[in-house]
Amino acid sequence: MPNILEHLKAKPESVRKRIAIITAVVLTGVIVFVWLTILYTRSLRIDKGVEQSAASSPLNIFFDEM
Which pLDDT belongs to residue 57? Predict the structure, then answer.
């Protein structure tokens, strides 16, 4: 890992910015893909009548404890 960072530090600033933007776009795309997949599978469960209780949501449990 340190070799990769040293290699990137040796690159010109424009190349480093391009790599940073591409990395950010790819990570954002992965997060959006996972999010949409979760929403889709949840909607399928709701359509089949297997609705989750709102009280068992991790965020609801967290905020109830506060």
Answer: 65
